Description:
Largest sheet: 6 strands, parallel
Order of helices and strands: EEEHEHHHEHEHEHEH
Mean pLDDT: 94
Distance between the termini: 7 Å
Strand content: 15-25%
Number of helices: 8
Amino acid sequence: MAPVDIALVHYPVLNKNKDIIGSAITNLDIHDIARAGRTFGIRSFYIVTPYHDQQQMAEEIVGHWRSGYGASYNEDRKEALAIVRICDSLQTLYAQTAAEREKTNILVTSAQSVIGVKTWPYPMVREKIKQKECFLILFGTAWGLADEVFAGVDGMLPPIQGDGDYNHLAVRSAVSIVLDRLLSGCG
């Protein structure tokens, strides 16, 4: 497996008015991001939310496919969802990854560049992954990660740019693109 973990952050994120909120977990994100993660060989896919009802819902969805009826119905989905972990905060996530490995580079993603956050070009990160450096890549939900998240990271990946000025991908699409750019052919 690649020395890469990903996290889908549901808090703290922004709404369209730039207020800090917590966003809802979606079934589609869990399934599609887990499948992309498994396809590209990531170690773990963390879902970060402090809300107990959201954690419980995510555990029920994942449990259905790991050990419930879904596990026998669809073995491929069981394998993909085996990488999913539920986490209550970024602080808990950072502590957990620090306890598991010596050094982890924490990178964020965003639809726009962020002033004051060093950009790590995809080829550079890809080379570091090939050299077995560990990475945790954070993806935001809603209208993106809150500013406070950017303060505690090592850098950010360049925004994904299309041909025009519209740039509001579904997070599951962004995850797939980023993983392809970083891990395709690395295994």
